[in-house]
Design brief:
This protein is α/β, with parallel strands linked by helices and 227 residues long. It has helices at 11-23, 34-44, 60-68, 84-93, 105-119, 154-165, 173-180, 189-203, and strands spanning 3-7, 27-31, 48-51, 75-79, 97-100, 128-130, 135-137, 142-145, 148-150, 171-172, 213-216, 220-223. The protein folds into 2 domains: 3-119, Response regulator (Rossmann fold, 3-Layer(aba) Sandwich); 128-223, Orthogonal Bundle (Arc Repressor Mutant, subunit A), CATH 1.10.10.
């Protein structure tokens, strides 16, 4: 069974999510604050984390950073904060998705299922590429540069996988946003800018002048690798 860690300081939201998730066959752990969330994550190893940002004590963004120090578990932020800066900060810290309160349970569950699918190995053949500057193996979900292994977040892996499976071809912003975040996010191009910048910083020899992860301004991105 898929285990979900729900982190929220509002008891009614925790209880509502627990009821809805358990009714659909999920195992659920609840945490009222950031400290409890990190302890539960370390001991219970959830498959997905649903996380509020406005927590007492340790803020939600710090929880994301704490989890990303050792785990690639998908993190779905569930927050009342609507500002773009808050969304970018959470995504930049390592969150995989962002849902704004008030929220629809069906949409949240759809995003949860999508996160689980992205984390699970696919059935189709997973390509591997080797360049002078990095190696990416989708089958083993390992990336490295001449300096050593590189850790990519689940969302970064999903973006890299889409570009790698369409290497040399333009993948539009809309295609990437719909596939990775869902149809309601097809105009959130700032998400792509944040994550593509992170990918380039980890894999490109010169992130300011990318040689592999190419931007087609206003259109999309292309992974350019010479055979």
């Amino acid at each position: 069974m898929t285990r979900v860690l729900v982190v929220d300081d509002e008891p009614q939201i925790r209880n509502a999510l627990r009821t809805n998730l358990r009714a659909r066959g999920y195992e659920v752990d609840l945490a009222p604050d950031g400290e409890a969330a990190l302890k539960l994550a370390a001991s219970r190893h959830p498959d997905v984390v649903i996380l509020d940002l406005g927590l007492p004590g340790i803020d939600g963004v710090e929880v994301i950073k704490g989890l990303r120090g050792w785990s690639e578990v998908p993190i779905i932020v569930l927050s009342v904060r609507e500002n773009e800066s808050d969304k970018v900060e959470a995504l930049d810290a390592g969150a995989d998705d962002y849902v704004t309160k008030p929220f629809g349970v069906d949409e949240l569950l759809a995003r949860l299922r999508a996160s689980v699918r992205r984390r699970s190995p696919g059935e189709s053949a997973a390509p591997k590429v080797e360049t002078l500057d990095f190696t990416i193996d989708l089958a083993t979900r390992r990336a490295s540069t001449p300096k050593g292994p590189v850790r990519l977040t689940p969302t970064e892996w999903h973006l890299v996988e889409m570009l790698l499976r369409h290497r040399g071809k333009l993948v539009t912003q809309r295609q990437l946003l719909q596939e990775v975040w869902g149809p309601r996010y097809e105009n959130e191009t700032n998400y792509l800018r944040v994550f593509m910048a992170q990918i380039r910083a980890k894999l490109e020899p010169n992130p300011a002048a990318p040689a592999y992860f190419i931007t087609e301004p206003g259109i999309g991105y292309r992974l350019e690798i010479q055979d």
